[in-house]
């Protein structure tokens, strides 16, 4: 009789609590392939870029692996060749990706046979725009990506980048969200295998605003912005390669 009562109560709890459990699922933690057709990138183009990355992962030697979205994908060619190519770097950035897309890519070929010494990760800004997530939710997605990277490459060092500030004005509400997010993901660093660096403030003017010379659309760095990032980050990468 007691056992039947317990079972009945368990079923009742499942029925009425299930919606509450469902609400706690964070979209950015679910591995998902790109399915949205953007005017600036088709799904076919995304598929092609991912396929190219899987070939690199399968056959190339990679010491420094960059993973992320359009900000990672958009490195100025000359800056990349000067700062990172000599260290056998590979760029697995794809524009428009959020944390769930990166998780899917890592689970579907991006790991391959490579054994990177350093992984440079910058991801999460599209969780705000495409998934309408809060800083807490985005941080949960970033955490899942870091955990996936550790699972795939337990001996690699991860250079976790803080999300860059975006929108022109210093008092933008989105700026506050970025600061809150970066405070949360900074806690992932153990300074043994995971290292957190926030290079974003280097992109700002003295008044906190963003110049179009640094980010033309107040989101993506220009060549000048990428140079600022490279100048700050390259010494950190070299230190982690030792």
Distance between the termini: 66 Å
| Helix and strand element order | HHEHHEHEHHEHEH
> Can you identify the CATH superfamily?
SGNH hydrolase
Low-confidence stretches: 1-22
The first-level CATH class name: Alpha Beta
Shape: globular
At the third CATH level, what is the topology name?
Rossmann fold
What summary fits the major beta sheet? 5 strands, parallel
Number of helices: 9
**Overall tally of domains:** 1
Model description:
- The protein is of the alpha/beta class and 242 residues long.
- The protein has one domain (2-241): Rossmann fold (3-Layer(aba) Sandwich).
- The protein has nine helices and five strands, in the order H-H-E-H-H-E-H-E-H-H-E-H-E-H.
- Helix 8 (173-185) links the parallel strand 4 (157-161) and strand 5 (194-197).
- Helix 5 packs parallel to helix 7 (135-152) and helix 7 (135-152) runs parallel beside helix 8.
Attribute tags:
alpha/beta; 242 residues
What does this entry show, briefly?
This protein is α/β, with parallel strands linked by helices and 242 residues long.
């Amino acid at each position: 009789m007691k056992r039947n009562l317990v079972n009945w109560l368990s079923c009742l709890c499942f029925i009425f609590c299930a919606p509450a459990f469902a609400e706690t699922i964070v979209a950015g933690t679910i591995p998902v392939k790109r399915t949205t057709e953007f005017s600036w990138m088709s799904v076919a183009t995304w598929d092609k870029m991912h396929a190219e990355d899987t070939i690199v992962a399968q056959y190339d030697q990679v010491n420094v692996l960059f993973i992320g979205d359009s900000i990672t994908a958009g490195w100025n060619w000359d800056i990349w060749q000067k700062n990172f190519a000599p260290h056998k770097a590979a760029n697995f950035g794809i524009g428009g990706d959020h944390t769930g897309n990166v998780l899917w890519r890592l689970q579907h070929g991006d790991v391959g046979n490579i054994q990177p010494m350093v992984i440079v990760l910058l991801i999460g800004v599209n969780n705000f725009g495409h998934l309408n997530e809060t800083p807490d939710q985005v941080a949960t997605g970033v955490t899942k990506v870091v955990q996936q990277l550790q699972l795939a490459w337990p001996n690699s060092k991860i250079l976790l980048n803080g999300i860059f500030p975006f929108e022109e004005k210093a008092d933008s509400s989105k700026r506050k969200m970025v600061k809150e997010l970066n405070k949360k993901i900074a806690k992932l660093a153990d300074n043994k295998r995971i290292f957190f660096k926030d290079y974003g403030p280097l992109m700002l003017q003295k008044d906190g605003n963003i110049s179009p010379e640094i980010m033309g659309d107040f989101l993506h760095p220009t060549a000048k912005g990428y140079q600022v990032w490279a100048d700050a980050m390259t010494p950190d990468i070299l230190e982690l390669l030792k």
